[in-house]
């Protein structure tokens, strides 16, 4: 992922794009803005997106679906747009 380097401008752009994506999808979580910084400073490669990130996201969604299925609530997810 260090294709663009780790200059301050590139890292600021990465954080800005991450927060913009969160705002567009209405899923703002300010601490997640630090994720691009950590990935770039750690020198992670592209497999980092598959191993912990995708697996963790799928686990969270599966747990949420299971919880809502067990509690009988059927209003998940509330927003798809």
Automatic annotation (TrEMBL):
Domain HPP transmembrane region as annotated: residue spans: 2-77
Highest taxon in the source lineage: Bacteria
Keywords: Membrane, Plasmid, Transmembrane, Transmembrane helix
Keyword Transmembrane: yes
TM annotation in the entry: 44-67
Record InterPro entries: HPP (IPR007065), TM_HPP (IPR058581)
Keyword Transmembrane helix: yes
Name listed for the protein in its UniProt record: HPP transmembrane region domain-containing protein
Species assigned in the record: Chelatococcus daeguensis
